[in-house]
Amino acid sequence: MLLVVAAAAATAVVAPPLSRRVVPFASLRIHRTRALALAVARCSPYPSAPAAADAPAPPLPQEAKPKRPKRYPKQYPGEAVGVAEEMRFVAMRLRNPKRTTIKDTAGAEDADTGPGSEASEDDEDGDGGGVKEEHEKEEEGEVQEGEWMPSMEGFVQYLVDSKLVFDTIERVVAESTDVAYVYFRKSGLERSASISKDLEQFREQGIVIPDPSALGSTYATYLTELAESNAPAFLSHYYNIYFAHIAGGVAIGNKICKKILDGRELEFYKWDTDAELLLKDAREKLNELSKHWTRKDRNLCLKEAAKCFQYLGKMVRIIIS
Questions:
Q1: 0.85 exceeded by pTM
Q2: pLDDT per position as a tens digit, 219-240
Q3: Do the beta carbons of residue 214 and residue 163 sit within 8 Å?
Q4: Residue 135: closest CA among 312, 321, 298, 299
Q5: Are 287 and 84 in contact (CB under 8 A)?
Q6: Please, what's the largest Cα pairwise distance for the chain?
Q7: Half-sphere exposure of residue 231: CA atoms within 13 angstroms, side-chain side
Q8: Angle value at C-alpha 172, between 247 and 105, nearest 5 degrees
Q9: Which CATH class name applies to 83-142+151-320?
């Protein structure tokens, strides 16, 4: 009996539990629906690449051009000092024409060309201040020192023409309202009054005093018109007339006086003070004034300097005519 009870108890312990049916959650149930219609979207075809023959060739790489060095305007001889120094180089070229290779645009002009003819636009970049061998023919025909045969008539005519020229430039400077001319008033260089004394002495000696020649009158008229139209160009003549007279005219005049006046010195060739100092003062004023001028104005001064020496050279040749 005890065995039966023990066996029943063991069976009750070992027997597996009754299986239970698992019911899924209602929320997790999947309801079948109708099948969805799927539409296939097609993209437009991508344009095909152009044929290799139609495709443009890629540009060839260009070589980098070397940079040109910056060009600075060339400096004219004497430019660092001033326009008076530049004109001195012009005078040197005219005195030694075979030493210069610079050709001129103004040198070919005749002496009676209209006043105030300005430099061309090319002069600002090129050889605007260049001077042609203006006096080459005159230099070739210039008489040598031993061949000088001055005449009294020719010398008096030269003094008359010189007086007219000095009268003109001194009157312009004294009477003009242009501020550029004011700096040169009462410079001490004036020669008109001195020539008047010399001519008066000749008149007292019974020598006939002629009227100004066509050359002297032409030059005086040119200076008058130039003074009204272009101050830098006129001042070029003003300075170079005195410069030529002091640098060479005095020596020529003294030689002539020894030959035809028995060595008597004329007032035309005398000053109360050192003429070189007077000329230096005028030169410094001109250089200072030219600092406010353009390169074109300076080039015109150089051209007018050549024209001035041309006139003066012709006037000196009257002495031996």
A1: no
A2: 999 999 999 999 999 999 999 9
A3: no
A4: 312
A5: yes
A6: 201
A7: 16
A8: 60
A9: mainly alpha
